[in-house]
Amino acid sequence: MDAENLDALRTKEYWDTRYSKEPPDHEFDWFKNYDELAPVLSAALKLDDKILVLGCGNSVRKLRK
């Protein structure tokens, strides 16, 4: 991706357009999915820890207990 396209990633319009072109049931994990992160997270966190998730996307995965 060139610099001009990278700059577009900062705009609301880019993401609105991108997500509007996907089927409603489409999901995507940008980094890792839950199964890949579960061992690391469970070692570092307690179930009653408060976590602020800064991110966006269309993944429907959630942390499971």
Please tag this protein with its features.
single chain, 65 residues, mainly alpha, 3 helices, 0% strand, elongated
Ranges with pLDDT <50 over ≥5 residues? none
**How many helical elements?**
3
Q: How would the global form be characterised?
A: elongated
Structural class: mainly alpha
C-alpha end-to-end distance: 38 Å
Instruction: Write the H/E string, N to C.
Output: HHH
Total domains: 1
Largest sheet report: none
C-alpha Rg, in Å? 15 Å
Helix content: 40-55%
- Which whole number gives the mean pLDDT? 78
- How many individual β-strands? 0
Strand fraction: under 5%
Description:
This protein has 65 residues and is an all-alpha fold. The chain has three helices and no strands. The chain has one domain (1-65).
Secondary-structure blueprint of this entry?
Layout: H1 3-8, H2 12-20, H3 34-44
Offer a concise description of the structure.
With 65 residues, this protein is mainly α. It is 40% helix and 0% strand.
